[in-house]
Amino acid sequence: MASSPPVIRPIVRKRNTIDAFLHYFHFRAAMKLANMDALLDGLFTNAVPKASILHFADVCAGPGGFSEYLLWRRCNASSLSSCARDSGEENSTQKDSTVPQLNAKGFGLTLIGSCDFRESDFLAGPCEAFLAHYGPDQDGDITKWRNLASFASLIARSTNRKGVHVIVADGGFDVSGQDNLQEVLSKRIYLCQCLCALITLQPDQSDGTATSSMATDDL
After folding, report:
1. How far apart are CA 167 and CA 207, in angstroms?
2. Is residue 82 part of a domain?
3. What GO cellular component entries does it have (predicted)?
4. Which of 9, 38, 83, 174 is deepest in the core (most CB within 10 A)?
């Protein structure tokens, strides 16, 4: 919202009533994916049975709201938080039962710097189940094929060459002063996100990509 012209910021705030629930997640994007997942009957988080490990990729989506939601939903991280806040009155058996099951593994690719993942800020999802990767150039640029190939290779090695069950992507960036050209400026990123899905996703699985308005012929 920081890039929105001052005249429309009040409208954006009214539209984003979902922000009222942000106390649960650290990052706003987590609520966006939570809403989509609910509307689609768990399309993203129920891609595999609860007893299995859900492998997912999160690209161009720092600081990590999508991953925070997926890890919370699959790993029962809310129980971990309550256990950590406990004063110690519960016995060890009760505490063991609240330790989350790490039945999800996330792989991230995003730009370093201000757009980087901030796993240490996850409130709801265990960052131990998330691995950020930045490619040979160590810049996380998805528009470079060598970074994409390296990311796909990491996922192949980590999943016994099966690939991920879910890929989520955002790709928003600062377009201050060029708001009306956002979708034009973003088309290369969208293309590379789709390419990433093609080389990392298992057959018949799900890709969720956040976009700006898709109203021009450029897209």
Report:
1. 5
2. no
3. cytoplasm; nucleus
4. 83
Quick one: CA dihedral 52, 118, 32, 218, positive or negative?
Answer: negative
Distance set, CA 181 to CA 51, 81, 172, 176, 214 (Å):
45, 42, 13, 10, 11
90 in a domain, yes or no? no
Q: What is the number of domains present in the chain?
A: 1
How does pLDDT run across 154-188, given as a tens digit for each residue?
Answer: 999 999 999 999 999 886 666 777 777 777 778 88
Which H or E run contains 167? strand 164-169
Q: What is the dihedral of CA 36, 22, 189, 67, to 10 degrees?
A: -80
Pairing of strands 130-132, 104-109: parallel
> Which conformational region is residue 14 in: left (phi greater than 0), alpha (psi within -120 to 50 degrees), or beta?
alpha
pTM to 2 decimal places: 0.74
**Residue owning tokens 């377009």:** 175
